[in-house]
Amino acid sequence: MNQRGKTWQQNSAIRRKGSAALLSVMAFMLVFATACSSENNESSGSTAASSDSPSSSASASAPASEKPAEPPVELKAFFPGDKPTDFETVMDAVNKKLVADGIGATLNIQFIGWNDYGNTTTLKTSAGEEFDMFLDAPWLHISQMISSNAIIPLDDLVAKAPELQSSIPQPMWDSNKFGGKIYGIPLGISQGIIGGFLIRKDLREKYGLPPITNVDELETFLYKVKEKEKGIVPFATDGRYADGLVGLFNSKTNGDNQALTMGMDVFYNGDKNGNIYPIYERPGFEETLKKLNRFFKDGILEKNLAQQENSTALFNQGKVASIPYSGDGVEGLKFADALKVSGVQLEVAIMNENQTHYSDFKQWNFLCVPSASKHADKVIAVMNWLSIRENHDLLEYGIEGKHWTPIGDDQYKVVEGSQYSFPGYVLTWRPNLVRTPDNMIPDDLKWFKFTRDSNNFQLSPFAGFTPNTDAFKTEYAQISPIKDEVLKPLGAGVLNADKGLNELKDRFKKAGNDKILPELQKQFADFKAGK
């Protein structure tokens, strides 16, 4: 920790000690005054009891005894990432308001680098170290934390936190339990996934093309850019996301045939009837592989897509005509700088947007309380307090006027020069409280508002179903490398479609698909039957 962080913690400790000392003096004075009053009452006899006595009236209106207020407890939290700029200033304001509002707690938030966060939190919980909250997730180690009793269920405490309950839609509460219990407060701002493309509207209109509503129309746009705009790449994305293109460019995985997620990454999918199948059996899968291979040969995909790590920067420089888009309120913000390029206009193209949109309402970040914490009630009290707009805004956006200014009830503008940016996914994300920045791409704002409303999604038949991989963990471990070794090259178009599909099927078979698939189907049948 740098010297500035140490100084802030030392000053905080001094302030807490000073507050405790002041409370002790006040308590002593109160006890002394009460004792004197008692002695006077006893010596006055019946006169003290007279209703005409001024001193009697004052004594009657005061409580016989008053318990001195306890100093607030300090809640220690661990979160991943780097400490935000100007964090101490904001936390000082947050802690003062927590005390003033009578919550009985203050926050001591410590950030741990991403590379060390998982191991560090595992070691701290397994050693029984006393701290009060931390971020966990299905992509981290929440399942292991639950099975080892390293974190506690929070159902009873959440039931006493009305503001927290109302700030999170009920489907989100219902779908983010583990074994039927709340083991973490779900942190998210959207209720489902809307995927599509962010494209150069100015180029589409330049060549007289209609708004894009399906994959075929998108393909026409991409080939027109390739033909007419020599300095612009038709489509780009980072190589680490290349496997996602196998679904993104699939014109048949929409509506009634939509592939539904079921907590198993991209390897197995389901349909609305509850049937589970491996990824290569998706409708339109083989056709999409051939399309991507053709895109690569024709120069529609960036030639170095498999190794690309800076596609966002290229798009923002006006060098790319289209890029993957997700209406989650976060991803779209990365591309706002593209609007600074002269003549650039942007729009979102959602394929078959009038289809039925399914969601399992799953979130991927959770605020958890370790078993060693002695202040679980205070943690939930703080989470309830952060579910009130002015408190939420203070921590998430900073000090009003210094770091940000409000625009209406649900937008904000960053004050020029402010660099404060709190990672809301660790503590403050609430679908019903989030504000959007004033520079958000209009189409991005439109679709983010759509994804925030749980009424826009139909409950996936796989909602709440989390496969137990213990029965086939050896086989599943052999399937996991397929993503990097086969699916990503296929998505980038660099692998021949026929050869790649055969390799994919062969790898699944050798890994033990014949054991995994029946087990998954059995587990899902048991889940639907309530077993």
TrEMBL record:
Residues 461-529 form the DUF3502 domain. It comes from the Bacteria. Residues 41-66 have a biased composition (Low complexity). Keywords: Signal. Residues 1-33 form the signal peptide. Residues 41-74 are annotated as: Disordered. InterPro entries: Bact_solute-bd_prot1 (IPR050490), DUF3502 (IPR022627), SBP (IPR006059). The keyword Signal applies. This is Extracellular solute-binding protein. It comes from Cohnella soli.
